[in-house]
Amino acid sequence: MSYAGDVTPEQAWSVLRDEPGAVLVDVRTRAEWSYVGLPDLSAAGKDVVLVEWQTFPDGAVNDGFTADLAAAGVPKDAPVYFLCRSGVRSVAAAEAATREGWTRSHNVLDGFEGPHDDQRHRSVSGWKVAGLPWVQG
């Protein structure tokens, strides 16, 4: 079963801002949340749901990912936007959520910081580069 699709950070922000039931799930690690920053949904009156796809520090896939989503209160019928660093882990998270009944799971393209550029630097695309609200962890 395929997830609902990919959206740009700007498209995700628009829905998160305008649709009361929409949820953003950041699937990066605790270290990334702390040291790189987080999307800031306070202007939309929301908090980001934080559920690791891969655990820190070992990098193992979180076998309890969908149980953690449920425990965080993410409704299965809500539009859910999954975000990671570059848009790779969030695809896996959206696919897993879809398999477990979250019917409106989306991947946020380019994630929070975007993929590497030619010099192996990040922050060339993604949520931060799009100028969307964020805070340092």
Key traits:
Sulfurtransferase, transferase, 5-stranded parallel beta sheet, 137 residues, single chain, alpha/beta, 4 helices
Overview of this structure, please?
By secondary structure, the protein is of the alpha/beta class. It has a single domain, classed as 3-Layer(aba) Sandwich (Oxidized Rhodanese, domain 1), CATH 3.40.250. It contains 4 helices and 7 strands. The strands form 2 sheets. A 5-stranded parallel sheet has the order 1-6-5-2-4. Strands 3-7 form a two-stranded antiparallel sheet. Strand 5, helix 4 and strand 6 form a beta-alpha-beta unit. The radius of gyration is 14 Å and the shape is globular. The model has no long low-confidence stretch (mean pLDDT 94). InterPro entries: Rhodanese-like_dom (IPR001763), Rhodanese-like_dom_sf (IPR036873), STR4-like (IPR044240). Keywords: Transferase. This is Sulfurtransferase.
